[in-house]
Amino acid sequence: MRADAERSRRRILDAACEVFLERGPDAPLDAVVRRAGVGPGTLYRRFPDREALVRALVTDLLARLGEAAREARRVEADPWQALRRFVHAAADLRMGAAIVVLLERLVVDEELVAVRRGTVEAVEDLLRAAREAGRLRPDVGMGDLVLLCVRVSRPLPGALAALDADGSLVHRHLDLALAGLAATTDGPLGRALGFDEVIAAAGRPGETMAE
């Protein structure tokens, strides 16, 4: 793909993420066009309908999430810091909030399943390393991590959004939440929630992901 075409695609996907988060998955595609600063023809040549745009956006988010997990593993020698780096990168991508919004409009295909599989493997590798280093509670599964990110990173409603205008509050809350995932001798242990359970509950399994 030519550099200018890739830039247009990136603008459209970033704009779609913002618009769908603000207005839901049924938001007018004209709003995406305006936010992206492209013409309607540019959008429809790449994404002929809403379904194609939603699928491309989720596939893109999952691919970027997987790369964030792999980069965290490469950059951070400490497994706990690698996990922390990944969680904060996921928040910056707004992955958790966006994918939850889009699930109801998502059609699972082979490409999406393949990307999801790679992302799951990369994140599970982070969790496994943190557990083996004795830094992560043994009852934390990928499903727990994903839902935690979803809960913390969703935009604040109404006027409360002004409290996190610069995006720093979500990162503070993520650090507070991560402190609860750290391995300690205190508190009861529960049952780890698997990512396959989250996908099944969302009604978009595509395939069963093994833990």
From TrEMBL:
Ranges of residues in domain HTH tetR-type: 6-65
Gene Ontology molecular-function annotations: DNA-binding transcription factor activity; transcription cis-regulatory region binding
Gene3D superfamilies: Tetracycline Repressor, domain 2
Signal peptide feature range: none
Entry-linked InterPro entries: Homeodomain-like_sf (IPR009057), HTH-type_TetR-like_transc_reg (IPR050109), HTH_TetR (IPR001647), Tet_transcr_reg_TetR-rel_C_sf (IPR036271), TetR_SbtR-like_C (IPR049445)
Keyword field: DNA-binding, Transcription, Transcription regulation
Domain of life: Bacteria
Pfam families: TetR_C_43, TetR_N
Name this protein carries in UniProt: TetR/AcrR family transcriptional regulator
Organism of derivation: Kitasatospora xanthocidica
